[in-house]
Automatic annotation (TrEMBL):
Annotated ranges, domain PCI: 321-501
Region described as Disordered: spans on this chain: 1-67, 545-575
Membership in a protein family: Belongs to the proteasome subunit S3 family.
Biased composition (Basic and acidic residues): 22-32, 545-555
Name under which the protein is recorded: Probable 26S proteasome regulatory subunit p58
Keyword terms, alphabetized: Proteasome
Domain of life: Eukaryota
Length: 575
């Protein structure tokens, strides 16, 4: 039965959340609690909730009705200055760089580099200058580096060694004896990172000449430093250096372009990176050299570079994708379509899936489609239905349709309509080679459709000049294995052979084997890309050695009789 005593249920007047305007101390009495539990068997226990609040004093005058505005309901929104926020974001990366140096872990450096994409839209000379003057001291070896950075952004009138609160210069610290304290120098990773931010700003503001000049100064400083914690930063610095030179007049493919003058610097950086086992710089410089050679159409020099250098296996995934893309373009120009197809396919698979890498995926896919057509294959229709590639691949879709049908007239019209787009993509010269493939495709379609067809009909359908040309093309297609047919010159017709069962051949097995090989290669590369804590094996060896020492001590105590059965059992239970 429930208790007859009425419950208050919190209906009594409450002032400031406390009855009788007094604070109540919550002290639990175990005996009283047990009695309450016995009396309230149905679970209707009295629950008293005490909430302590502070009275809110309002300075606002009462309104016409005599009510006072509730200040506690107003939420003051704290507005953060974007300049201060950007400066703070940049300085937060300094902590990551210091941890990278202290722990010798490149992952912290990569985290700092990834933050550049979020900071670059807010970069201004004022923000960069504010970070420099608050980071570098007014005296010491680091002061010269800070002045050079300020000169690059046109803020050489600023003085170093200021505080973040104001523009007052910091007095030189002194010890108790009156001697000056040694000023803490800035680590090279921080000034190189600031140099990369300056490169990003100059690139976005299209100040290419100033950017190239500053990049030369930055590369010279990197060459003098031999620190493995600078590998990722130096690779990014060389990337922007090459990007600035590509935008200076005269533009490639002119032999007088600054890209050509930059090659000795890149080759020197590559030699130094190989000697220092700098994987990041080595991979980046190889890719930049291949790009430079392709811009000026120096294919033979690019081939020599590939044959005389070894691309690092543990390079970053984005550098591997770029290297495979450029290597595929070189092999396609050299008529080695099989190797080009393999490299371009790997490049498209390794391309990042993020939105920032859509341009690379589009460019690599365009070259891959042209190479597939040159190999005599028809690309899959699903490739053109991808949302990120559909609009960019529209000219190539029409090109594939013309090649698939074997209509030479439509093929020439498509080339004339989209010549500018093909030249801009760098595929125009490769597409011009497709004319013979269009003719071969047309002959193959006719060989599948007709068991016997005259050379005159072939000449009319393919828009050829004469029957002799049709006879020559058909004979070459038979010799190359494009079609399986026989040519009767006396009667002037082509007779097709019966098509056998493709599943009775080795082609399905070879295709299946190729897919398995790609999957196994992807698994191996994933295992190689895994990161493990440094010197973890040493810690495991140390723990194993300590365990062996404890076992020896325990064995000695057992032999000497100092360890009884209880201690022995307890020790093993603890282990």
């Amino acid at each position: 039965m429930p208790s007859k005593t009425p419950h208050s249920n919190g209906n009594e007047p409450v002032e400031n959340g406390i009855r009788n305007n007094q604070d109540i101390d919550m002290k639990e009495d175990l005996k009283g609690k047990g009695k309450k539990a016995a009396n309230n068997k149905d679970g209707d226990e009295e629950m008293t909730v005490v909430v302590k609040t502070r009275p809110v004093k309002s300075s606002a005058p009462p309104d016409a009705d005599g009510d006072v505005a509730m200040d506690e309901e107003k939420v003051d929104e704290v507005k953060v200055d974007p300049v201060v926020q950007t400066v703070t974001d940049i300085k937060n990366n300094f902590v990551l760089l210091e941890r990278a140096v202290a722990q010798f872990d490149a992952r912290f450096t990569l985290r700092a580099l990834r933050s550049i994409s979020l900071i670059r839209k807010r970069l201004t000379p004022e923000i960069i200058g504010k970070v420099i003057v608050e980071t570098f001291p007014a005296t010491g070896a680091s002061a010269n580096v800070g002045k050079a950075l300020l000169l690059a952004i046109g803020r050489q009138d600023l003085s170093l060694g200021r505080t973040s609160a104001g523009d007052m210069e910091i007095d030189e610290p002194k010890t108790k004896n009156g001697a000056k304290k040694e000023v803490k120098e800035v680590i090279p990773e921080i000034d190189i990172f600031l140099g990369i931010l300056i490169q990003v700003y100059l690139s976005d503001s299209k100040q290419y000449e100033r950017g190239a000049e500053f990049s030369k100064h930055l590369s010279d400083r990197i060459q003098k430093l031999n620190r493995r914690t600078l590998d990722s930063l130096s690779a990014k610095a060389y990337f922007y250096y090459s990007l600035f030179c590509e935008q200076l007049a005269p533009l490639p493919p002119s032999s007088q372009s600054p890209v050509v003058a930059l090659r000795p610097t890149l080759l020197s950086a590559l030699r130094t990176a190989v000697l220092r086992k700098d994987v990041d710089t080595q991979a980046s410089v190889i890719v930049l050299l291949l790009r430079s050679y392709l811009l000026t159409s120096h294919i033979s020099q690019a081939d020599l570079l590939v044959s005389h250098t070894q691309f690092p296996e543990n390079a970053a995934n984005n550098q591997v994708a770029r290297y495979l893309y450029y290597l595929g373009r070189i092999r396609a120009i050299q008529l080695r379509y099989g190797e080009a197809h393999a490299h371009l396919t790997a490049a498209t698979r390794k391309a990042p899936s993020s939105a920032c890498a859509v341009g690379f995926s589009q460019t690599a896919t365009k070259h891959l489609l042209v190479v597939e057509l040159l190999m005599g294959d028809i690309p899959d229709r699903a490739t053109f239905r991808q949302p990120a590639l559909e609009l960019a691949l529209q000219p190539y879709f029409r090109l594939v349709q013309a090649v698939r049908v074997g209509n030479l007239e439509d093929f020439e019209i498509i080339i004339a309509d989209h010549a500018d787009a093909f030249r801009r993509d760098g595929t125009y010269t490769l597409i011009l080679r497709l004319r013979q493939n269009v003719i071969k495709t047309g002959i193959r379609m006719m060989s599948l459709s007709y068991s016997r067809i005259s050379l005159r009909d072939i000449c009319i359908r393919l828009h050829l000049g004469s029957e002799e040309s049709a006879e020559y093309i058909v004979a070459k297609a038979i010799r190359d294995g494009v079609i399986e047919a026989t040519l009767d010159r006396e009667r002037g017709f082509m007779k097709s052979k019966e098509v056998g069962d493709v599943y009775a051949t080795r082609e399905p097995g070879e295709a299946f084997h190729e897919r398995i090989r790609v999957c196994l290669g992807l698994h191996d590369e994933s295992v190689k890309a895994m990161r493990f804590p440094m010197n973890q094996h040493r810690l495991e060896l140390k723990n194993a050695q300590e365990a062996r020492e404890r076992e020896r001590e325990m064995a000695n105590e057992i032999q000497e009789g100092d360890l009884d059965d209880d201690d022995l059992g307890g020790e093993f239970e603890g282990m």
